[in-house]
Amino acid sequence: MIMGMTYVTTAIVNPGDSEKRWEGLFLVDTGVIDCMAPGKYLREIGIEPMGKRTYELADGTELHMDVGVA
């Protein structure tokens, strides 16, 4: 069986104002808990960081990223 990559266009909506939204093309990973989107676009629709989270990459590198709710 050959496995391919799956992409989907997704709308991210500001939970406080459903009129504020951004759509983007995302690579789907069904095993993840968190989703990542460019902060520039999230801020444009009024979603501000609520904290930071550290993510460890496969090579051991750690990334410290802002997190928010959408």
Q: Can you describe what's shown?
A:
- With 70 residues, the protein is mostly beta strands.
- It has one domain (7-67).
- Helices cover 9% and strands 44% of the residues.
- It has one helix spanning 39-44; strands at 7-14, 17-27, 51-56, 62-67.
- A hairpin with a 5-residue loop joins β3 and β4 (62-67).
Strand and helix layout:
Elements: E1 7-14, E2 17-27, H1 39-44, E3 51-56, E4 62-67
Antiparallel strand pairs: 1-2, 3-4
Core attributes:
70 residues, mainly beta, two-stranded antiparallel ribbon, 9% helix
Number of strands: 4
Percentage of residues in DSSP E strands: 35-45%
Overall pLDDT confidence: 91
Q: From the helix content, strand content and strand pairing, which structural class follows?
A: mainly beta
Major beta sheet summary? 2 strands, antiparallel
N-C termini distance: 35 Å
Radius of gyration: 14 Å
**Structural domain tally:** 1
Number of helices: 1
Question: What's the gist of this structure?
Answer:
It contains one helix and four strands.
